[in-house]
């Protein structure tokens, strides 16, 4: 009796032991879910040190909306433009469509892990297809269901589903990155337009001043006090500045047309009225740590891409192991459709399928090598993205630091040039200096005023660039005094 039982157990052992061995080896079919580590500095090099007693908390690295950072500029027109861009910009809509596609692919990959059930019905009329059948034509009508389920013993399906979901998460990050990019472009284009408006007003005011001087010079020329050459010189300055104003008109039209594209409107129907440049200039608080870059959606997307590539390495390695599927079906089969649903016409069947390629010409090995190469590429892209993020932040911080110094120096130059013009105009009207001296003073004042406007515009552009480089601004509540015990714990963790 025991011998018969042992004999009966041998076929089961022969079938189970290789399977258990394959399950042990299946652990090799998974790729470690790790990301390269970076030693983050305590703070950015170009940023001033935080005042004692302050602390900034970094946000987690998630592809999530960054809030209405543009409202810190306190400009209702800018608010409306960015809201329109969020709703109608074509780049954002294209990124949203790619995200929807990635999510659909993730659901499709996840569906492969579920049982597949279907209904089927059919009829066949044949003759002579089997020696046991009569040579006369016969009919077979069937109706029933099919069932199949692939056992995911080696993690191939779960890894494929995980990779697809990570791809969808990466697309979500890229959507947020695209939205942030468009918002920053709208803000920078709008602020550039307002800077041009201010410069146009300055140049046109200068033209009016030159015209007053021209009238005075013409009167003095008619009285014989000055030569015709003096009149021609002033006329030249008037025409030259009018030409500069027209150049600024053209630049403004180009910026307005660019805004139309960003907000999804036709340039022919889009208009931004001329307005004062009263937009507030937010300042970055000191002490923002380098870890804040983990909030950047493009870095979050790069992280997800690395993890997806690692999962696909596991999928490629799992191709070395067998595919095991369970199948089944049931229903009715009858030669007469009228008897199809009778209990005697019932039919059913169950089965199992194990498939393992023995020789594929190196296809599976090539698949593993391809997946590994894609992982290496994703890792390189991730490292590059982090390095670029630090570069962008340091660029904007250095620009803001230098521009703040330049703005102070330029303000002194404007004040001195304005005083020189006032004195020169008074002395010229009293005949104490030549016309050339007055024209030189006015040219110097105009040049310095325009330079001051350009420095101010550069400050706004760098501020928006910094907000984008930080992943969507900073939380004003993040820079606050923390209780001593909490602050010490945070410093220790840091």
Can you describe this structure?
With 494 residues, the protein is of the alpha+beta class. The protein has nine helices and six strands, in the order αβααββαααββααβα. The chain has helices at 2-25, 76-88, 90-111, 156-222, 228-262, 297-318, 363-429, 435-469, 484-493, and strands at residues 54-55, 116-126, 138-151, 323-334, 346-355, 480-481. Strands 2-3-4-5 form a four-stranded antiparallel beta sheet, with no helix packed on it. A two-stranded antiparallel sheet has the order 1-6. Helix 2 (76-88) packs across helix 4 and helix 4 runs antiparallel to helix 5. The radius of gyration is 38 Å and the shape is elongated. Mean pLDDT is 77; it is low at 1-32, 49-65 and 476-494.
Largest sheet: 4 strands, antiparallel
Mean pLDDT: 77
> How would you write the strand order of the largest sheet?
2-3-4-5
Strand content: 5-15%
Summarize the structure.
Helix content is 60%, strand content 10%.
Helix and strand layout, with pairings?
Blueprint: H1 2-25, E1 54-55, H2 76-88, H3 90-111, E2 116-126, E3 138-151, H4 156-222, H5 228-262, H6 297-318, E4 323-334, E5 346-355, H7 363-429, H8 435-469, E6 480-481, H9 484-493
Offer a few descriptive terms:
494 residues; alpha+beta; 4-stranded antiparallel β-sheet; two-stranded antiparallel sheet; 6 strands; 60% helix; disordered C terminus
